[in-house]
Design brief:
Number of helices: 9
Helix content: 55-70%
Strand content: 5-15%
Order of helices and strands: EHEHHEEHHEEHHHEH
Pathway: Cofactor biosynthesis; coenzyme A biosynthesis; CoA from (R)-pantothenate: step 5/5
Function: Catalyzes the phosphorylation of the 3'-hydroxyl group of dephosphocoenzyme A to form coenzyme A.
Largest sheet: 5 strands, parallel
CATH architecture of the largest domain: 3-Layer(aba) Sandwich
Catalytic activity: 3'-dephospho-CoA + ATP = ADP + CoA + H(+)
CATH superfamily of the largest domain: P-loop containing nucleotide triphosphate hydrolases
Bound molecules: adenosine-5'-triphosphate
Shape: globular
Keywords: ATP-binding, Coenzyme A biosynthesis, Cytoplasm, Kinase, Nucleotide-binding, Transferase
CATH class of the largest domain: Alpha Beta
EC number: 2.7.1.24
CATH topology of the largest domain: Rossmann fold
Distance between the termini: 9 Å
Strand order of the largest sheet: 2-5-1-6-7
């Protein structure tokens, strides 16, 4: 089974691109969404996050995101500990998901792919890019956030230049029609390689 990693900086348009691949019939696994689902559903993750952050980690069985975001924003050790709880379980969940798919290739969308050396587990990597200013503009429209918060996240991510060097395909996501054309080309190219 061919596994394609889809990545890109914050606000580049990974999910927008992933949805287009899905429309072409490609099974898509969005790691952030699945991680969030598991944080609310998995008993073991819940138990471990309560051990780490205390009872306030959940309100009515739902992850208390603002509470946790505040802690991890101020202390990176907590972010690491939280990732150590969640990542192995998402990896296992992904493996099980792969076994259930029947398609020439699969896509896994991951925000942080190169940064932790994970790129070796993919047959191909697609990086979505867009100018930083445009990404900030999109995120300010989508989320209740600030330019400073977005820039702080960008600082922790590899630059587009660095990602491009290690990618098999690059999608420049500015005008949607052009993005769509690049997606179709890449889709056909991967199918030919299978
Ligand atoms: P994150 O890093 O937060 O997960 P992402 O890389 O998955 O974000 P998206 O959520 O796909 O990015 O896109 C960010 C915002 O920009 C969304 O509101 C989306 O609708 C919008 N957007 C994405 N691509 C385009 C485009 N080509 N033209 C206009 N708006 C776009």
């Amino acid at each position: 089974m061919i596994i394609v990693g889809l990545t890109g900086g914050i606000g580049s348009g990974k999910t927008t691109v992933a949805k287009q691949f899905k429309k072409l019939g490609v099974p898509v696994y969005i790691a952030d969404v699945e991680a969030k689902n598991l944080m609310n559903k998995s008993k073991i993750i819940k138990r471990k996050l309560i051990q780490l952050f205390g009872d306030k980690a959940y309100i009515n069985d739902t992850l208390n995101k603002p509470f946790i975001a505040d802690i991890i924003f101020n202390d990176k050790n907590y972010l690491q500990k939280m990732n150590d709880i969640i990542h192995p379980r998402v990896a296992k969940h992904f493996k099980n998901w792969v076994l259930k798919q029947d398609a020439p290739y699969l896509i896994k969308e991951v925000a942080i792919l190169f940064e932790n050396g994970g790129h070796k587990s993919y047959d191909y990597i697609i990086t979505v890019t867009a100018p930083k200013d445009l990404r900030i503009k999109r995120l300010l429209m989508r989320d209740n956030t600030t330019k400073e918060k977005i820039q702080a996240i960008m600082k922790n991510q590899w630059s587009d230049e660095e990602k491009i060097k290690h990618s098999h395909y690059v999608i420049e996501n500015t005008a949607l029609e052009l993005t769509q054309k690049q997606i179709v080309n890449i889709h056909e190219n991967i199918l030919e390689s299978v």
